Predict the structure.
Amino acid sequence: MKKLSAAMLTASAMAVASTAMPAQAGELLDTIIERDELICGVNTGLAGFGIADSQGNWTGFDVEYCRAVASVILGDSSKVSFVPLSSVQRFPALQAGEVDILSRNTTWTLTRDASLGSTFAGVWFYDGQGFMVRAEDGIETLEDMNGASVCVESGTTTELNLADVFAARGIEYEPVLFEALQEVLTAFFEGRCDVYTTDASALAAVRTANAPNPDDYAILPDLISKEPLGPMLRRGDDEFYAIARWVLFAFLEAEEKGVTMANVEDMRANSSDPTVQRLLGASGEMGSLLGVDNDWAYNIIAEFGNYGEMYERNITPLGLPRGLNALWTDGGIQYAPPVR
């Protein structure tokens, strides 16, 4: 190995020192800290992702992500106010500053990235648009839907994909549009439309949690779109954006490195893996670089586990396999950039 000269070592050390300065909080991050609460826009009620019980306690995959962001910024995962938003309500609420972040099954698209004054922290869940039908109707393919009425939420990529794909295949259909999820479900289960289409994960959640008898309904294997879902933020605060993005990545990196809720303390004390040490704050200044406590990732993994544990707790009960959401080392496409 070629040895570095003294001058190069000095320059390298200065570079490290200059990038190890704590980040300055942006305007939104300052507001959240001053308010001592994160305001998170969530689904109006989707099992596995974001749903409230009769006491108003929110649970789900997207909900836990928001709690983790609050933990990193405010040191307390309970300091979150959840605002249920329909598909139509979500973007105006984010633009108006009524919520700090959207964590509710929102697809990352070019239009949303470029024209809504927003940005995406990353892909939290890879999904695709599917179809649910009544089993007794005998619909097995998209072509079987010719002439069918299709329930769909307005203002979604789902509505647009449906129009594109059915037009391309020459399939005639009657769209039945609703603004709110509950309106769509009521219409479908009352038989006011033949087909219900949305993200495959949502279909599984609805069939499990809302169908009068789940066995009466079939989810077709066909998927007609890519639906990369992720947390959405307003532009203008790079410091808040960096935290939101690296919370997501920390959960993925923890799973890849075998760090779990049960072993995180032991791994921080005894792991010889430099990446694990940096991730958990045993070495390096990863927290300082984000402007937060160096134990930030340790704390959220100790409370929520890694990405796989969160998936197992919230999504697996819906009957959804990991699929594309498995780590790249297990045949999926999920992974985090290097923690260094």
User: Anything to note?
Assistant: The radius of gyration is 22 Å.
